[in-house]
Amino acid sequence: MATFDFHFHPVFKQYLCEFDGQYPSVRDVETLREPMELTNPVTDFLEENFLHILESQSCLTQLETGGLTLGMANIAPIERMFAQKEGLFGFVLNSAFFTSPVDQTYLRKVRNGEISYYQLFLRELVLYKKLRDAGVLTMLTRQNPVKATGSGPFFTLALEGGHSLCRTRIGRPGVRDTFEVPINAEDALVRDFRDNFVVDPAQSLQHLQQALWDEGLDLMSLVITHLSHIPEQHIATHAFGLKMLKDEAAYPIADGISPAGKRLIDNAYKLQVNVGGAPQDAPVLIDVKHMSLKSRIEFYAHRRANGFDRFPIIASHMGVTGYSVDEWKSALAEAKRTRLPSGTPVVSLETTRRTAGEWGVVNKRFTFNPWTINLMDDDIVEILNSEGLIGLSLDVRILGWQDFVTKGEKAEFMSAEEFRFFFPELFRKLSAEPLDAAESFLVPTKEERHPLALCFNLLHIISVGKLLTDANPWERVTIGSDFDGLINPLVNCRDASRFPGLGSLLLRWLPVAEKSYRAENGGPLLLDRNARGEVDEAKLRKNVDRLLFENGEAFLRNQRWIL
What we know:
It is built from 21 helices and 16 strands. The protein is of the alpha/beta class and 563 residues long. It has one domain (3-558): Metal-dependent hydrolases (TIM Barrel), CATH 3.20.20. The chain starts with a strand and ends in a 5-residue tail after the last helix.
């Protein structure tokens, strides 16, 4: 069966294996197709809790084995905080011993501000060009849409993080980056980079899209922020999502979307490129992943106020909180105001986890992850009503599961400004004394319960869609694995080669999850029934097929990326 993935990084791990001093890349095409193997003597603990996150999950050979034919390939230049050596994960990531064959040149250049995020993006993009030109894959474009059948895979291009557009040296605002390329090796992207030093991200996106089209490429979507604060180019406040790195940049600061961020959104939706002397529409969709909750609220309002609600909203690799915004506010269990070493105020908050359902005898309680990096019910309604598409992440941490390392990570962080927006009265009362805390965490048996966590997240989206919208939610959801995005994947689907088994897992566990979810949360039937009142297996299989491929294919066709 053909499969679709709304969010993955198929060359990122191989990209990290060698800093290619030449442009275009001279790396071997066959090597670029293969998985990155960590070759070092390590303990079982590190393999289980850290190193498998760094190993390849979606290289081209794994995608081929797994039957993936269609998807959205993302480029996310590694952020400066990953190059710092603070915290256990930072130490491991920056250790040549533990992370061999990762080329530490990348991390050194990022750490020392010797390169721009934009150049990092170009150096990864050129690997896709090399694979395209070798006939290994097809990069989809709206200027030349094709039928996504036969030889594949077929990828659209996406940027994960507005920092990708930053053309100044990392951590050095206003300092222009340089890219030494022989004249005979220059392409439209390099020439634009050399000739157009733009600081505003909206202008950078305009230049990028034009250069991409000149190279027979196209950009489908943009995540405007990522996992860290980028001081040299602040676009929007990010949602807290990573506690394994002890770097101040991981903590959200500021207040919603910046003016530069709103200009970027405006330009993304209004983008035109010059094709043979004539303007052609080439809008870029906005992906709400990684925006803070307040940023997302501002984004929806900005869309409506500026007539952009005709464009679908996408959320490419998500989980759900199980709450509406108002319910989430009522579920606050503990809040503490603190300051980062720089003096910047942030608020640590713990939220009572909503029960998704129960299954089994021991460790039977399943809960959603209430961190605001996940979707509120309000988000689900906005996306479905826009005729957008939600990709379910295969990162078990996003889905609600907690392992040995993360089970103590009950608290997320929010900027003081944004906490005050949601809790104005409490913000004024905050002191050193915390509120009474309520604890809820989940430590399930992995092999059976990881897929159940996925099912509970899916069913919550279906429930919200049925209750609060006129859309058919089964047509608006897919998989956005985030493979090779430094995730901790489902143990049953550790990499893309195991995609074929995902359908069977869903068929097995969705009826179990539905019964438990409705017993806990009520609401309508979420799976179709036959005349005997049993789950209709044929219709269930149809909905699983939609989730794994058909919805993604239809979305790309409706957006004119494929015929």
